Amino acid sequence: MNYRHHFHAGNFADVMKHVLLLQLLNRLNAKDKPYRYIDTHGGAGKYDLSSAAAQKSGEFLNGIHRLVKLDDSITRQAPAAVQQYLKIVEEMRNGSGKGAYPGSPWFALEGMRDIDKATIFEMQRDVFQQLYMNVRDRRAGLHERDAYEGLLAVIPPKEKRGLVMIDPPYEVERKDFPQLVELIQNAHKKWATGVFAIWYPIKDRAMIDRFEKKMIKTGIRRQLVCEVCVWPDDTPVGLNGCGLLVINPPWQFSQDADEALQWLFPHLRMQENSGHAAVRWLVGE
User: Fold this and answer.
1) How many Å separate Cα 252 from the centre of its chain?
2) I need a labelling partner for 230 at 20 to 30 A (CA). Which of 138, 216, 268, 275 fits?
3) Where do the domains of the chain lie?
4) Rounded CA gap, 109 and 132, in Å?
5) Residue pLDDT, tens place only, 148-206
6) DSSP-based three-state secondary structure for 125
7) Domain 5-283 in CATH: superfamily?
8) What is the pTM of this model?
9) What UniProt keywords apply to this chain's record, in alphabetical order (predicted)?
10) Is 256 within any annotated ligand binding site?
């Protein structure tokens, strides 16, 4: 496996994913009972945007870099989850240097409460070692394990409620993400009440259409699509946008997500009057 998130950390897709992750956790926090956060591909937990890998791609320049350059008068008008996201980034930068950027496990642990627990998978040995060094939290169990088999072994968690963040590298996924669809089906069968958030790249609209049709055919109810495309669909740039498919979204999350994405989109889009941000139900109740 050649994928390394160090090249992509802090890009527009990370911004979208991490803001919505915090919103999901905020909704779960609204109930007193504890929950479990499960991250199937945890990565290093923390990244250095001044590293050679990040500087080579420069993707963060059109992501987090755009937001931290905004005037305070603008960010103060942002939805609460966006402000929370920027505060977490700022706190890490203040403690670890201006190039520091949190990964999903870091954001999740910042957004969770003391009573909640996390299970974080990472199968690449060198990346797992970085995760182990970067994420030291008594609430988090770290596992050097392939999540495609590990996830099914840990659900349903003893808390009976929680969130699974699925963000695979998509190196082995082709066409309409068949392995991913199979994983989601099997996981949902074991934990029908769990919240599942699946991040995916948008490079080819026809492929996404096929993926959505396969997800509809699973028969799983309550599937919400959150989508941001910073380029038009037919732009040959490699990554035009990204989506987050949320199964069993918490109450009012759809409104939260739409508010956040509509605020983020004008600051992240690559061309005036092009691209889009949208939240829609793929499958309703």
Assistant:
1) 18
2) 216
3) 5-283
4) 14
5) 889 999 999 999 999 999 998 876 656 679 899 999 999 999 999 999 999 999 998 98
6) helix
7) Vaccinia Virus protein VP39 (3.40.50.150)
8) 0.95
9) Methyltransferase, RNA-binding, rRNA processing, S-adenosyl-L-methionine, Transferase
10) no
